[in-house]
Each structure stands twice: as structure tokens, then as C-alpha cells.
Amino acid sequence: MKKILSALLGLLLLTTLPLSAQTLTVAVAANVQFAFQALRTAFRQTSGIDVQGVIGSSGKLTAQIKNGAPFDLFLSANMKYPRVLYRDGWAANKPKIYAQGALVLWTMKNYDVSQGLKLLRSPAIRKVAVANPKNAPYGQEAMKALAHDGLTAAVDPKLVYGESIAQTNQFIVSRAADIGITAKSVVLSPQMHGKGAWVDVDNRAYTPIAQGVVILRHGEKTRPAAAKRFYTFLFSPAARKIFARFGYRLP
Q1: Would you say the CATH fold of 102-205 matches that of 2-100+209-245?
Q2: The domain 102-205 belongs to what CATH superfamily?
Q3: What is the secondary structure of the chain as a DSSP string?
């Protein structure tokens, strides 16, 4: 009984703290990593609430949430994983699209990327980085783009898989891979701006990457007002301007 009372008291104290004294923890798909930094800064300036991000592939973050990870919201790289979480009772609201992501072909080496994905047929290119399609929606769409252009058989032996877009970017930037398919939000970030050469992947070659957000049950129970405020902020003009700056299409 004492343990139960202590837990209830702790929850009461947490939920009655001033919003500015609370810190949200958000599960963030790796493609949103750089945009998230701008979002959290803008949100903190207007609300006084700090937001910490845990970066990873959407599939692995979903597994962590189902295993009880104390995340308050989830910014996914697709709609599939948030829908699963809502269906299974881990999310407090139906997923809503906050942005649509785009693919680019990116390299640190001296290749003519204006050729687009056809460049990947070149014998000079031995390693092509993509996010693991088992866990990462951007990897799934990269594979669709390769198939659309009839490149699956030629490129498959060259593929090296990152566990997320973040690791895929590491392969590209470190030149461990000759070239890679990644998120446009990465190459437009201040951290990566001007590095290497990139070109958009034809958006007819893959499905627009609709990305969904949900408030998780943990956030609903422990920080409901702060979680709702950040969720609402993601659809504000200020946030939409940030998403657009990082190359996302707006719903």
C-alpha cells in the first residue's frame, strides 16, 4: 500500500509541476533528427518547456515503446508504426500526418549525380548505402525507387544497410559507402549543408512518405498538458515553416 501511495504521490507532483519545469521525452525518427533540433528550440522559446529527443529507426522505437520506454510522444517516419501503437493501446490519439518526407541520392565522391539513380549501375560504384527496410520507412521507399527504375538486380549486391537513416548518413559522410539514398531533410540541414553532392530522387518512383505523430500513453498520464502543447505546436505556422525549410512537403 505504501508503494502504491508513493507512486500516486509522485505522479500527482509531476502532473502539477509548472509546464516550464517539465521536460518531454520524444521518440524521433532519424530523418527528423536535424529538423527536431530547430523545432525544440522554437518550442522552448515560446513555451519554456524543454523537449529531449531519442533518435532511432521507427521500427526500433516502436519496439522500445511496446517494451515500456518512457516516451511522451512519437514522431514516426511513416503512418504504419503510429497506427499499430494506436491500435494496440500505446497511443492516446489517432496518428496525424505532420510532414511528408522526400528521398535524395547523396555522395561525398566525385560522381555526376545528375544521372539520378541510373548512376548506381556504374562499375565505379561498389557500395550503396540505404536504411534497413525492415526497420526504416525511408529504406522501404528507397527499395521501391530502385525497383521502379529497374535497378534492383544491378544494385542489390552493392547495398549496405544502416540501421536507420542516421547510420546510413554516417556511411555516406565517412565514405564507407560510395553513395547512398537518404532523406532530403539531412542534406538541407545546417550540419550537412554544402557537403558532397546530391540530387532529388524522382518522386514518381516511390510513395510520398507520410510521417505521423502520436501522443503516447506515458505522456498522456504523466505530462498531459505539456505533451498536448508540443503536439499542437507541430502543426503551427512556426513548425510548418521549419519543416518546409528542411525539405519536407506539408500535408
Answers
A1: yes
A2: Periplasmic binding protein-like II (3.40.190.10)
A3: -HHHHHHHHHHHHHHTS-GGG-EEEEEEEGGGHHHHHHHHHHHHHHH--EEEEEEE-HHHHHHHHHTT---SEEE-SSSHHHHHHHHTT-BSS--EEEEEE-EEEEESSS--GGGGGGGGG-TT---EEEE-TTT-HHHHHHHHHHHHTT-HHHHGGGEEEESSHHHHHHHHHTTSSSEEEEEHHHHTSTTTTTSSEEEEPPGGGS--EEEEEEEBHHHHHH-HHHHHHHHHHTTSHHHHHHHHHTTPBP-
Indicate the fold that domain 2-100+209-245 takes in CATH.
D-Maltodextrin-Binding Protein; domain 2 (3.40.190)
Would you say the pTM of this structure is higher than 0.90?
no
**pLDDT tens for each residue of 64-106:** 999 999 999 999 999 999 999 999 999 999 999 999 999 999 9
User: What percent of the chain has pLDDT above 70?
Assistant: 92
Q: What's the pLDDT at 20?
A: 52
* pLDDT bucket at 22, cuts 50 / 70 / 90: confident
Residue percentage of the chain with pLDDT more than 90: 90
